[in-house]
Amino acid sequence: MTTQTLPVPQVYQGQFGEFTITSHDRTGVIIYRAGLIIAALSFAVGSGLVLLNNNPTVINILTPLYTCFILALGVSLFTIHIYMIILHRMLQIFWAIGTIASVILALSTSEPLAVTVYNQPITLFGVGFVFVALTGIYFKEAFCFNRLETKVLTPIVPLLLLGHLVGVLPIQWEGVLLGIWATFFLVFALRKTVQPIPADIGDKSVFTYLKEQRLAKV
């Protein structure tokens, strides 16, 4: 009769002490990355339909694709590891505001959501919060991992949305920026799948230290 032994968890040395990475931590990272993949694929398909297909019927497909994108992004925002809890909560709040605005807009107009947003740029003051949250992820990834694609994405998203909002971008340039955004978003999400999982978890001793600091102030 043999006795099965559990593998000894690897101990990491953090800035404020030692820590281990649990199966729960790893599952959270996998869910975070899966959300990014689904969001990126949905965005890429929708962008491709807009840029490469002149058939007006494809506009109706954009709403379910956007729904898939926004839900997947929400999952990623609730499983991402960010040291500053206030920043994490802000990104989640931005996503919630944008999601609620999108739902209200979709239910209050008879035309497809994409058409409404494109023809009425002022709606970006509500819907645009979703993309503020997405840009927050790009910025975090660019800061933590120095990835080229996230360095490109971080300025492109506000440039495209603000440019459309104030009406300074020609339609050709909007198409170019949208194509770059969709391509680099997909590259970013795919590259995350081969990145070591502990990198996305970060230094857990920092999370513990910051939590202790918050509790000490209560």
UniProtKB/TrEMBL annotation:
InterPro entries named among the record's database cross-references: DUF2301
Chain ranges passing through the membrane: 30-52, 64-86, 93-110, 122-140, 152-171, 177-194
Keyword Transmembrane: yes
Coiled-coil regions, chain positions: none
Keywords: Membrane, Transmembrane, Transmembrane helix
Entry annotated with the keyword Transmembrane: yes
PANTHER family reported in the protein's UniProt record: F3H9.20 PROTEIN
Name of the protein in question: DUF2301 domain-containing membrane protein
